[in-house]
Specification:
33% helix; seven-stranded mixed beta sheet; Rossmann fold; two-stranded parallel sheet; alpha/beta
Length: 266
């Protein structure tokens, strides 16, 4: 009997904490986008183009990861009267500080979105990119975000869609019993309704992109960087590499991506 392997991200705080205890796996996943994305704008740059961060604003980022999205946006950093860079993982906070650097107006802090350690109406903008699907109690987290936002503030949250990389890879690897079990509690498809339970105004913006992979070894490394979220590691890398190589056309494996963001207001 063939076993069914799940390409999933378990929605458990301890699993998430272990997954992001170091920056290595996250850096691997970021690097494949940097190297092979067909949209050369860059997801981080596109996200920033949707921010309305003006001089003197107080900004909180939750789930900062490596802090790489702030690269090249020193002008935005300096324009803030206060910028709090935070993550659930202390290791990620340290990595973000290393990436972004020290500024007199920037504070680095370990923070849980479900218990944000700031007073009501503290921030003009709150950012939570590619992380809400990890939150065990999204409703509680979003209500915390709304609490610390000023009445005129904006909440920016990027996420993935269900018809992207994981759906595609699980399809290619279906002969091995792989299923896409990615946690879908907050996606482009359901994000509006989730946010609408807490915020009055919700707008969705889509980012058009794909991967044009010329070296499948990089994609194999991407897959295995999900070691805490998938059982694929029971298969030899060569097996996965050969399977992916069969789907290359003219030396390129085209992988669909579905990413975007929501902008929510009271």
């Amino acid at each position: 009997m063939r076993s069914v392997l799940k390409m999933n991200s378990i929605n458990d705080s301890e699993t998430v904490k272990d997954q992001y205890s170091t920056s290595e796996s996250l850096s691997t996943r970021i690097s494949i986008h940097d190297k092979y994305s067909t949209n050369k704008t860059g997801f981080g740059n596109w996200i920033f183009s949707n921010y309305d961060i003006r001089d003197g604003m107080k900004v909180l980022e939750l789930g900062c990861g490596t802090g790489s999205m702030w690269k090249g946006h020193e002008d935005v950093i300096r324009s803030c009267s206060e910028l709090v860079i935070s993550d659930y993982s202390e290791a990620m906070v340290s990595k973000a500080r290393e990436t972004i650097g020290d500024y007199p107006n920037v504070t680095y802090k370990q923070t849980d979105i479900m218990d944000i350690p700031f007073e009501d109406d503290s921030f003009d903008a709150v950012i939570a990119n590619m992380m809400l699907y990890h939150v065990p109690d999204i409703s509680r987290g979003l209500n915390e975000v709304r609490r610390v936002l000023k009445p005129s503030g904006s909440f920016y949250c990027a996420t993935f869609g269900i018809h992207g990389i994981m759906e595609y890879l699980s399809g290619l690897l279906s002969e091995y019993g792989v299923e896409d079990k990615t946690v879908k509690t907050f996606t482009l498809q359901n994000g509006s309704s989730v946010l609408g339970e807490v915020f009055t105004s919700v707008r969705r913006e889509d980012y058009k992109d794909s991967l044009a992979v010329t070296d499948v070894n990089d994609l194999v490394s991407y897959i295995y960087s999900l070691h805490g979220m998938t059982s694929l590691s029971v298969f030899p890398r060569d097996t996965i590499r050969e399977c992916l190589s069969l789907h290359m056309k003219d030396g390129v494996l085209t992988v669909p991506k579905e990413y975007g963001m929501f902008i929510a207001k009271d």
